[in-house]
Structure formats: structure tokens, C-alpha cells
Design a protein that fits this description.
386 residues
């Protein structure tokens, strides 16, 4: 999930779920003095690439379905069901791939080039788009007030920087949950750097830091998959029942409960309940993610591209009233919107698109950083002779 949203430094940067390959016969040979030790080749785990691709598909579908919620109860139920867990799943997987983040030079470099630079570029571009397409030349340009989906990059940056802290705490999850509750009951917390969402989704990221591969393996059993089906059906049924009156902004964690018309004490309950519900649905989703290689597996390495680029098209659909056609609100039209969203995000995660936009999504920026090869040579030259 970014470079992809879920890779370390990053959802975002190693783009992989690396599994160390077995060393060959020559691996035991000691390298000459001064020669950098070569790491054994790594291969990607198709399960996690599949999970990242399918998660970004849900993100695209959720954004595409939003206008349809004004015209149909079933569409609203689908929207609520997906929004109940798709960003929590994103945050959890991002946390899982951030476990190795230790503030080392390589990690910091990837954090800057894989999260900070894309955020600066795309947040500026989106703000200019809003000015032009929205015919609002006075719209302020503020990098501290992320627009639309850009909040996740800000959150990912903050979460990654604090990863060593969460890994060192003995009771990290209760503390993260307490911060999420604090955000829910604090109307004056402010909107800068999307702090409400940063704290609201923090427990999922911290939980991902604590998970191991074997935890995901326990979900991929026939029994869990069979149990997941009635759970998801029940969740959709509950969403369908509450669709006419439920406030979907509770799922965004973008504001306090008092700003949504609820008493402050309600945040003490809504936050843990939404967390548990999202966790159950995320487990159901991960249980059905295929573990072997599929045609879309390679697309899991390009989720950052899909995440950043699809926002332009989503916003264009709002600015130019693409949804002003009554047939889109029919069952056939809703299926058509879903198919277009899936096709669009698939193309945006593909190799050709990544090649075109790599200079802004995964810039090398070697001019800004010390070359690691030169640094290694200097360290070798400074080392005392053996």
C-alpha cells in the first residue's frame, strides 16, 4: 500500500512483503575485507500484494459510490459497509509493513521521498485544481490542511516517525485507543494536519505494528472464511437498516462527536465500538484474500500511484457533474460505476502508469542525500587495518 501505501517508509515504500530467500551454496563464503555484505535475494509474498491491491480497489469504489448514496438505500448500505473497514484495513497493513522502521538513514530517505515529496506535490496540484475547476481563485493553499484523501499521507508520515515509540511501549494499544477516544471527545482539537484522523485511525496502525505473519495465516483457514460470510452479510444488513439515518461521518474520524450532534460522552463508546466492528470486518476481508499469485498480484506494488492519481478523476467527476444522469442511480448504473472504478484503479496501479509518474511518486532525489556507496567507501577507508 504505498512505494506503496503499506510498505515501510513508506501505503509506503518498500512495496513489498519480502520473504528472505534461502541462501545459495556460496552464501557461506566470507566476503573479502572491505566488501559490503550482500543480502540474500528477497521475494514478495503474493498474499500481501493481493491484500494491498484489493484494499485500494475498495477505496476507489467507496469514493465512486459516495454520490450514489443520495439515490438508493442499497448503495448507501454498501458504502457504509466498505467505509466501516477499508481505511482501518489500510492503516493496519501500513502498520504491519512499518515494523522495521528505525529512523535509520535509509528509512528516513524513503519516508521523505515516498511520503513527504508526493504529499507536497499532489497537495499543491489538488489545491490548484480546486481553484481552477471550482472557479475559486482565492482558495487558500495550505499544506497543513490536507484536502480530501491527502490526509492519509500526513497520518502515515506521523505514524512512521513514532513507530519506534509504539514498538517500545509495553501497553501501546491501550494508549493508542485512549488517544483516539481523546480525539473523538475534543471539539477544539483543530483541523491542522488532519489530527482528528491521525489519532482516530492510530489504533489500527499500532495494531499492525504488533502483528506477525502467523496472525494473518490464522485467518486464511476454511473455517474462518466460512464464518466471514455470515458476518459480512449481517454487517450489510445492519448497514441497510440504519442507512436512512446513520451519520457516515462517524466512520471518517474527521471530527469530534459533538460536531456531529452527539454528546461528548458518546465518544467514549463510539470509538471502541467502531474499532471492534472495523477489526472484525477487516479480519473477514483478509480471510478471503487469496494467498497465491493472481493476475492482479503485481499491481499491489503500485497502490500509492492508484491512491494519489484516482483522486484527480474522483474530484473531476464532482466538478463536472458526471453523476448528473438518472440512470446511474439504477441497479445497472450502480454496477457500471463500480466496474469503472475497479477498472480505473487497476490501470492506475499498472506498470506503464508507474513508469510515467515515478518521478513524483517515487523520486530518487539522489542529489539531496549522501550516496550510500560513497559512504561505505569512506567508512572502509577509515577503518583500522586488520
Amino acid at each position: 500500500m504505498p512505494q506503496d501505501l503499506a510498505a515501510p517508509a513508506p501505503v509506503a515504500a518498500a512495496d513489498s512483503a519480502p520473504v528472505a530467500a534461502a541462501p545459495g551454496p556460496a552464501a557461506a563464503a566470507e566476503p573479502p575485507v572491505g566488501t559490503p555484505a550482500k543480502r540474500p535475494p528477497a521475494r514478495r509474498d503474493p498474499y500481501f500484494d493481493n491484500a494491498k491491491y484489493l484494499t485500494i480497489v475498495l477505496v476507489a469504489c467507496g469514493h465512486a459510490w459516495e454520490p450514489l448514496t443520495h439515490g438508493g438505500r442499497a448503495a448507501t448500505a454498501a458504502y457504509l459497509t466498505v467505509y466501516a473497514f477499508h481505511m482501518p484495513a489500510f492503516a493496519l497493513i501500513s502498520g504491519f509493513f512499518s515494523r522495521s522502521f528505525d529512523m535509520g538513514p535509509g528509512m528516513v530517505r524513503r519516508l521523505l521521498t515516498g511520503v513527504v515529496v508526493p504529499y507536497l506535490v499532489f497537495e499543491t496540484a489538488y489545491s490548484l485544481l480546486y481553484r481552477w475547476a471550482g472557479d475559486d481563485p482565492d482558495l487558500p493553499l495550505s499544506l497543513l490542511d490536507p484536502g480530501y484523501a491527502m490526509w492519509f499521507l500526513v497520518a502515515l508520515f506521523i505514524w512512521r516517525l513514532t513507530t519506534p515509540l509504539w514498538l517500545s511501549l509495553r501497553h501501546a494499544m491501550p494508549i493508542a485507543m485512549a488517544l483516539a477516544v481523546f480525539a473523538a471527545v475534543s471539539p477544539n482539537l483543530g483541523g491542522d494536519i488532519s489530527i482528528q484522523r491521525v489519532l482516530g485511525f492510530l489504533p489500527f496502525f499500532v495494531l499492525g505494528l504488533k502483528l506477525r505473519a502467523e496472525h494473518f495465516a490464522r485467518l486464511r483457514t476454511r473455517r474462518v472464511r466460512m464464518l466471514a460470510v455470515p458476518v459480512v452479510v449481517a454487517a450489510f444488513g445492519a448497514a441497510y437498516a440504519v442507512a436512512p439515518w446513520f451519520n457516515a461521518t462517524l466512520l471518517y474520524h474527521s471530527s469530534s462527536v459533538t460536531e456531529q450532534g452527539l454528546p461528548r460522552w458518546a465518544g467514549l463508546f463510539t470509538t471502541p465500538v467502531l474499532f471492534l466492528g472495523a477489526l472484525v470486518l477487516t479480519a473477514c476481508f483478509l480471510a478471503w484474500v487469496p494467498g497465491r499469485r493472481w493476475w492482479f498480484t503485481a499491481l499491489g506494488a503500485g497502490t500509492m500511484y492508484g491512491y494519489l492519481l484516482h483522486v484527480v478523476i474522483i474530484k473531476a467527476s464532482r466538478f463536472w457533474d458526471w453523476y448528473d444522469h438518472s440512470w446511474l442511480y439504477t441497479p445497472l448504473g450502480q454496477l457500471a460505476v463500480t466496474a469503472v472504478a475497479v477498472g480505473l484503479i487497476t490501470v492506475l496501479c499498472s506498470g506503464p502508469i508507474r513508469s510515467v509518474f515515478r518521478f513524483v511518486v517515487e523520486p530518487r532525489m539522489s542529489w539531496l542525500f549522501h550516496d550510500r556507496t560513497d559512504a561505505g567507501k569512506r567508512a572502509t577507508a577509515a577503518a583500522p587495518p586488520r
